[in-house]
Amino acid sequence: MLTDTRPLVELAARSAEQVNRQHRLTPELATALTAAGFARHFVPARWGGTAGTFGALAETTAEVGEACASTAWCAALYAAHGRLAAYLPEQAQYELWGATPNVRIAAAVLPAAGQADAAPGGWRIGGRWSCASGVDHADWVLLAARTQGKAGTAGTAEQRIFAVPRAEVAVLDTWRNLGLQGTGSNSVVLDGTFVPAHRSFTLADLATVEPGAARCHAVPYQLVAALQFAAPMLGAARGALRAWTAATAVKRRVDGRPAREAGSVQVVLGRASAEIHAAGLLLSHSARRADEAQATPLVVAENQRDLAAAADLCADAVTRLVRAGGARGQGEQDPVQRRWRDVTAAAGHPALDFEAAAAAHAREGFALADGWAA
């Protein structure tokens, strides 16, 4: 279970500027988020993991995101990648979690950027993958590659995900981004590295459910994929709102009157706070669907729609706050501007693309309407 996150939140707040400057989390932050329970949150219970809920993950990730979006991003992904690794065969799961469930796992799985060639007993993998968030402090890395059939055979091309010890991966210091600067989402390289056959599974395996699996391991990947990216955004938006409100409360206009008395300022506060509140409701409801609802195609599409909409609401709200902050609010060290960069970067993730989410929802919605007409 996720523990009291207050020590992590306090450390993340103190470290936010440092992690942005060095483009990665500090070792202390990585240790703290592991101690808080993120790495083990979705690890199966038989390995000592929590097999936890999506609601708890979304809530605690947003709390951390108010202090530092980069820390929250890595925390959520370490949790999500533990869930992903649970699709590995039993032998590989033992290698990951036999000693402890507190294993940090980074990943670069979409798109499948590498090539895996069959070899006796497994695969030889080579390639370069980008955006492996948190890889500097990871113990293992999940990487997707294109293959030709099963290990040791030739056959139909497929995409597989491979588990590789972090020590066997070369990490390139490539992460220089507008926002989420502290996530350390660097590129990684393998050059003919051997991976045993038991340390992989196919993308198609994500549609399978192990009998008796915990709820968190029995829902479709598409139902929850966007949650891990939207939750840090919500936290960053809440942090921006708090910082903007505190600064504006003591700000005065050029004529000496309090800025808080201006109608335009009140409209900005009202609209931005409503947008962020609405985003929180959408996120909470999406997590509850993931934890409780029957995962029909329509429910999956509704979650995709709602999480993408929540991301848009957060981005719109924080942009509104930055614009209302004037020149002072655009300074490099301004807390609202920093969170605007984080939210803007997160909003560009493909999992939060509203057009794609709307298309998926429309397909299911209109199919349902066709049934009504019939």
TrEMBL record:
The keyword Iron does not apply. One of its GO terms (molecular function) is flavin adenine dinucleotide binding. Gene3D superfamilies: Acyl-CoA dehydrogenase/oxidase, N-terminal domain, Butyryl-CoA Dehydrogenase, subunit A, domain 2, Butyryl-CoA Dehydrogenase, subunit A, domain 3. The keyword Disulfide bond does not apply. It holds the Pfam family Acyl-CoA_dh_2. Coiled coil: none annotated. InterPro entries: Acyl-CoA_dehydrogenase, Acyl-CoA_DH_C, Acyl-CoA_Oxase/DH_mid-dom_sf, AcylCo_DH-like_C, AcylCoA_DH/ox_N_sf, AcylCoA_DH/oxidase_NM_dom_sf. Residues 228-353 form the Acyl-CoA dehydrogenase C-terminal domain. GO terms for cellular component: cytoplasm. It comes from the Bacteria. Transmembrane segments: none annotated. Keywords: Monooxygenase, Oxidoreductase. One of its GO terms (biological process) is fatty acid beta-oxidation using acyl-CoA dehydrogenase. This is Two-component flavin-dependent monooxygenase.
